[in-house]
Design a protein that fits this description.
Radius of gyration: 43 Å
Strand content: 5-15%
Distance between the termini: 72 Å
Structural class: alpha+beta
Strand order of the largest sheet: 1-2-3-5-4
Largest sheet: 5 strands, mixed
């Protein structure tokens, strides 16, 4: 079964009807291109004019859906029209077929047709002039140029403009898509940043409040209950201050950290707070003279890692000392927090599992390394301990081939 041609475009139908009507009008009043007694008129009379007129009008229906077929058939009809008295409308419709073949045809046809018609135009001017040696012979080339080369060139220009406009539209859509992806990534990154800040600032204080409120409710000792309430109040005040700082960041829409951002100088107070909450913490800080070598982002990350580690120790660690140590090692700030592990059946306060994830994200943003898991007794770690170890570069990210892959942290029970 032969393939069905696509349905003609509405404009093509109107163009075909208009051309056929105009040709019939000229045929009706007896207006032709050449006199009937001219030597080149093979089929004289008025009726032979209608055949190429009807054929080329039918080709107009295919100018957009099948431009190559329309042009080849129209060329045959134009040659047949040349053997009759000729119709001006037939020639005009052929120029439209040539234009449409370049505009709607394949890219190869769009490149080839202007070249072919240009050669035919030159040949149509030079060959008759060389044969007849009269200036009027040059008009044959002019006629070929008007009928074939001009519409082909016009179609190529319009096609190039359309392709350039389509390319610009696609480029604009791609740019808009990339901008939307960047915006989405920026929003996601900001949400993650605020989630880390909110968790790290509040979890420590709320964990202490939960633990001491449980103790206050379970003990009949008035003095112990009063001490627990004092710790609860202190952690509530500190948590409220941290929340206000976070709200200030959100309201001012500023990517820079506020002046009250925690630093390494605040680790002493953080450790004292952990001792107040009941932890036996041994703190081995970085020498004061070395604080100036630590960039602010690294200071903030180090503070939050120690804070989250102490929060986890408060909730999960067994009885025994917790050690916090900071050192400069190989151009990086080395942080190690070791706490007892293995002798507690359940955490003292519930957790969400986001603590280790937040620490891992902070270290990854600074292109450092992070490990968290049970100690095996190697190095400075004691068996039966939980070790949090982070290394934060002090001079920017390392080369791509030297960046270490951070192993996934092992969860101890349920983390804060």
């Amino acid at each position: 079964m032969a393939p069905r041609l696509p349905r003609p475009h509405r404009f093509d139908v109107w163009a075909s009807l208009a051309g056929l009507s105009g040709g019939l009008l000229l045929w009706g009043i007896g207006l032709g291109m050449r006199p009937a007694d001219e030597a080149y008129v093979v089929f004289d009379g008025r009726w032979p004019l209608l055949v190429p007129l009807v054929v080329i009008a039918g080709c107009e229906l295919l100018r957009r859906s099948a431009p190559r077929t329309a042009l080849l058939t129209g060329t045959a009809a134009l040659l047949a029209d040349g053997l009759t008295q000729g119709s001006l409308v037939t020639i005009i419709m052929y120029t439209d077929l040539m234009y449409a073949a370049v505009l709607y045809g394949t890219p190869a046809a769009a490149r080839l047709l202007p070249r072919i018609t240009a050669l035919l135009t030159v040949a149509g001017a030079l060959v008759p002039y060389a044969v007849w040696r009269v200036p009027e012979a040059l008009l044959v080339g002019v006629a070929v140029g008007v009928v074939a080369f001009t519409p082909a060139s016009t179609g190529l220009i319009v096609r190039n403009h359309r392709e350039a406009a389509e390319t610009a539209r696609l480029r604009a859509e791609q740019t808009a898509l990339l901008a939307e992806m960047d915006r989405t990534q920026a929003v996601t990154a900001e949400r993650s940043r605020m989630a880390r800040e909110l968790h790290d600032m509040v979890a420590n204080h709320l964990s202490a409040i939960a633990i001491h409120s449980t103790a206050a409710l379970s003990l009949d000792d008035e003095a112990a209950s009063r001490d627990a309430l004092a710790v609860i109040r202190e952690n509530s005040v500190q948590g409220l201050a941290e929340m206000r700082r976070l709200i200030g960041i959100l309201r001012h829409h500023d990517d820079r950290e506020p002046a009250a951002t925690p630093t390494l100088d605040g680790l002493g107070s953080l450790v004292e707070g952990a001792r107040t909450n009941g932890l036996d913490v041994a703190f081995d800080p970085l020498p004061d003279a070395a604080h100036g070598d630590v960039p602010p982002p690294v200071e903030l990350a180090a503070y939050r890692i120690v804070q989250e580690s102490l929060t986890n120790a408060l909730k999960h660690a067994g009885r025994g000392p917790v050690t916090v140590r900071l050192r400069h090692e190989a151009g990086a700030l080395d942080i190690r927090v070791v706490s007892p592990y293995g002798d507690r059946d359940a955490p003292r306060a519930p957790g969400s599992g986001a603590g280790l994830v937040g620490m891992r994200e902070r270290v990854a943003l600074l292109h450092g390394t992070f490990e968290a898991g049970p100690g095996d007794g190697g190095g400075s770690a004691r068996p039966g301990t939980w070790v949090v170890h982070a290394s934060l570069p002090l001079s920017g990210p390392p080369p791509a081939d030297a960046t270490a892959t951070t192993p996934a942290p092992t969860l101890r029970g349920e983390t804060a």
